[in-house]
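S.,

As promised, the succinic acid run. Input:
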Amino acid sequence: MPRAAPYAMQDIPCQATQRGRSRFSTRRSLLAAAPLLPWLASARAADPIVLRFSHVVAPNTPKGRAAEQFRLLAESRTQGRVRVEVHPNSELYTDRDELEALQLGAVQMLAPSTAKFAPLGLHEFEVFDLPYVFADYDALRRVTRGEVGQRLLRRLQPKGIVGLGFWDNGFKQMSANKPLRVAADYAGLTMRVQPSEVIKAQMRALGARPRVMAFSEAVPALRAGAVDGTENPTSNFLTQRFDTVQSHLTLTDHGYLGYALIVNARFWNGLPRDIRAALDSAAADATRYANEIAKQVNDEALAEIERAGRTRVLRLTPTERGLLQQALWPVHQQMRGRVGGDLLDAIYRETGQGLGRRTAAG
Ligand code: SIN
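Predicted complex:
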């Protein structure tokens, strides 16, 4: 009777946020309902397996669209034996608590940015945050599709998590209520960042103060003046309405924002084989889809930001870009110990990046 929710009792969220708690039964109320369980079990034998996929961005972003693609593929390839519920925009969990919710089984699938794995003790995922570590998508793919990417996904296993692949968002741009062209323009600004030591070091290298906050808190904090600026790809910038609270956006492409598609291992490994095979293929195809559409979604968002005209978009000259790279390059050396020297060297080998940049920056 594989579909009668084998995870029902053990997977009740107990430490998750108020937001999450309000939507799920507590362990206590489930125990109180124990006499009804045999009836419930037979009533539920034909019910679909429910897979909750929580994320923090808007539906019309690379991640939002790929999550929807996964839902469509998963439901059709299992002939409805699996129902995927996609919860966007932090409506179930913020990025602060979604990993805990996954580990507890309150949700089954997530795609957190690789900047958010530190609570699991997996600092090596922050290697993706290093400034200018990937020259372009080809360099990135050599890492995510190669041995390095697989090695990183395997690191999730002891945490009760299965890593299924990497999804792009894209390259990040800097924003503030002033033009940001050279490092000196960032001096004294407070910048909202994701909880990654590498991103914090990047902001400090520019003379700015990093302030970690959840994605859902960024726009309110900018509106209140608690922070001055931030960084994100244009799809997130547009769909979260950063353009209503930031007067300038500089196309720096200084760092990468991507996601690891992950599932709760107990859920995944407890699935009937045919169902898991169907979901595996849905995840692989959704991954391909995510990585095919991401650049275009960001290009379209940039065009829309420019068309709407609320935020002025600045393009760096080659000299300005070179100076920014030079200011940020020392972050690689500073963060080598945190992300792991071997891993960083393996990435330099894959991308051919490290040596050239090191030489250029002296
Ligand atoms: C996301 O794209 O999932 C969120 C990015 C952020 O927190 O800045």
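DSSP finds 17 helices and eleven strands in the chain. Confidence is low (pLDDT under 50) at residues 1-43, 355-362.

- D.
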